[in-house]
Structure formats: structure tokens, C-alpha cells
């Protein structure tokens, strides 16, 4: 499996995505992706290198602006790191999560009339919307699931409302808060509620 970082919360090694053997992995999806996006923007062009580097930049953006310690209040959940992985020994296909991520990213860029991708700090909010859009595409393709939360009968109604409100704001990133809440009230989680 191709991996561009060694440990959780480590910086993404962008040079990894500039290696010729990594760029070669993207050759197999370049033409199908161009063909699929051609009806949205007939003059769209990119190289396999552009696709490879975009995957690196998306991961670096998530690391820089959607991490645990530097997360904005309205930030989307991160795209799971496992969806960015691919095997250098096998070519990428149109069914691979990487293909879906790239298609969603380029579709978003076209719809919003971006001339290019820009992951600088001044574009943080726009890129957070890009990540949210990619996550929606991955959800539609059944590559990710919406998080679920659980409540025990002993959780008071007022606490349920508060937690549910928080979950909706942060797109169900409630599992951490629920565990914290569970520790505070010392009760097991039994019932599961799905939020959207």
C-alpha cells in the first residue's frame, strides 16, 4: 500500500506524490476521469502528475486545517485516510476510492468556477466546503457511512437534545463527546440513533 506519512498526525510527504512510480499509478484513471468530466468542462486537461499531487494536497489540507487541534467550528469531518491509500503494484481503477475523490474534487472545482486548486490558508473555508462535497460523494458511493451515536435510557432528555444539536453541527462527530459523557455519568451506551 502506498502511504505518504509514517504516523498519525504526521505531515504528509508531498514529495511522495511526485515520484514517477506513484504518478504512473494515476495513468490508468486519467483518461476515464477526463472523459467523465468532459461534458462539464470540454476544455479541461490534466496530467497523471496533477492527479497524484492533488491527492497529496487534499491530505495535507486535512492535516493542517481539519486536525484535532486546529479545527474550525464549522469544519467538516475528514475524509478517512484509508480512502487515500492505493497499492503501487496495482493500477487504480474507476471503482477505487481515489478515483471518486478526484472526480468529486474536479466536479466541485468546475461547478464553482475555480481556475485551479489552491490550498493556501486564505482559502481554508472554501477548501473545507470542497472536503464536505467530496465526503458527500463518497457517502453516495457507499464508501463511507454516517457516524452513529448511542444513548442509554439514563441519559436525561435535556442532555440528549444538547448532544444531538452538537452532533448535527459537527456532522455527528459525537463519538468522542459521547464517550466523554459516558465516563461522566458512568452508564453504558445501548440505544443507537442515526443522525444526518
Automatic annotation (TrEMBL):
The keyword Transmembrane helix applies. It holds the Pfam family SWIRM-assoc_2. The chain crosses the membrane at residues 170-193. Residues 1-196 form the Chromo domain. This is Chromo domain-containing protein. PROSITE patterns: MARR_BRCT_CHROMO (PS52032). Keywords: Membrane, Transmembrane, Transmembrane helix. It comes from the Eukaryota.
